[in-house]
Amino acid sequence: MAVKILSVDDEMDLELLLTQYFRRKIRKGEYEFYFAHNGLEALTTLLKHPDIEIILSDINMPEMDGLTLLAKVNEMRNPALRCIMVSAYGDMGNIRQAMNNGAFDFATKPIDLDDLSITIEKAIEQIDYVHRSQQEHSQLESLKSDLAIASEIQQAILPRVFPPFPEEASKMDIAASMTPAKDVGGDFYDFFRIDDDHIGFLIADVSGKGIPAAIFMAVSRTLIRATGISGVSPSECMNYSNRLLAEDSVDCMFVTVFYGIYDLNSGEIVYCNAGHNPPYRIRQDGSAEALPMAQDPMLGAITGITFHEGRLQLEKGEKLVLFTDGVTEAMNTTFEEYGEARLEAALSGQAQPSCQATIEAVKGNVAEFVGEAEQSDDITILALKRL
């Protein structure tokens, strides 16, 4: 599109001079000139043509001079509009005032049209930069809005009503929390009823951060939930999920998962740990001990893997606390990690409080340790207690 230039000068011969000098650019559609003979006419022209981006204005004019016009133009707050002021060579006081008041550049009479052409090209470069910046800002604002919606959607797909199984309130207590490091995260948790006697529960951590991790998180969560809710064993669920995720993995993304099936009557948990942090078991006396380290790899990394199961008998009053590495790897301002020892200490003595109280206690302890340091990873905790 043509760059629109407004020339404001009470000397009529300047109009002919400019159209003659820039005739080639005008014919090619690169420049389009408008002319006014004082500041008032210029303001009227700007109202009719708000896409004018360069003003070439004389300082000394009747009715409204160039300095007053410059002040009016500044009130428009158009960041792309550039004013080039023109005056006699000896009028350096007014030229200096114009530059201090925001003029882009100046030219002296008699006008050197070659020099003016260079000045106009410099102005166009700055105008193009402003337009690019405005476009990028609009794109960022749109992306920010999309991320806010994505965050709401991501939080909505995670269970948020506690207790999730009020009809089983006399047998179990379960709660969970996910705090993303960015607008959207790669951690997730889930729990669902398999049949009258069994509840499936899981916690997972997708590799990477941001939008790619969030998309992979949604796919993984849907796949594991759809498979687990059918009633297959934890190992079968992991075998099937791993095969599908590994076949369609993009950029070698993977997810660590701890998936268990809880027997509401016996308190037994059959579980499969696919490369995830081992949960902590909190006994009735308040002591906390970690389950054995995972022997199987994460989901989506290697095809043809057979996953194995473990068994855990929760006694009445005992609790199982699952977490992602955003907890233990949380760092303070001196880049010291929170670590497993602090987590174990925070969990010790948490046998009696509710699962939600335990989660809040851990989160509070991590926040106190981290202090003013920025959260570097998603923080997710799930707790299950046999009543």
Report on the structure:
- The chain has 11 helices and 15 strands.
- The chain has 387 residues and is of the alpha/beta class.
- The longest helix has 45 residues, at 113-157.
- Helix 3 packs parallel to helix 4 (66-75).
- It starts with a strand and ends with a strand.
- A hairpin with a 2-residue loop joins strand 7 (187-195) and strand 8.
- The protein folds into 2 domains: 3-135, Rossmann fold; 159-386, Phosphatase 2c, domain 1 (4-Layer Sandwich).
- It is elongated and about 100 Å long.
Write the topology of this structure.
Blueprint: E1 3-8, H1 13-21, H2 23-27, E2 31-36, H3 39-48, E3 54-58, H4 66-75, E4 82-88, H5 92-100, E5 105-109, H6 113-157, E6 172-179, E7 187-195, E8 198-206, H7 210-228, H8 234-247, E9 255-263, E10 268-274, E11 280-282, E12 288-290, E13 310-313, E14 319-323, H9 325-328, H10 339-347, H11 355-370, E15 379-386
Parallel strand pairs: 1-2, 1-3, 3-4, 4-5
Antiparallel strand pairs: 6-15, 7-8, 8-9, 9-10, 10-13, 11-12, 11-14, 14-15
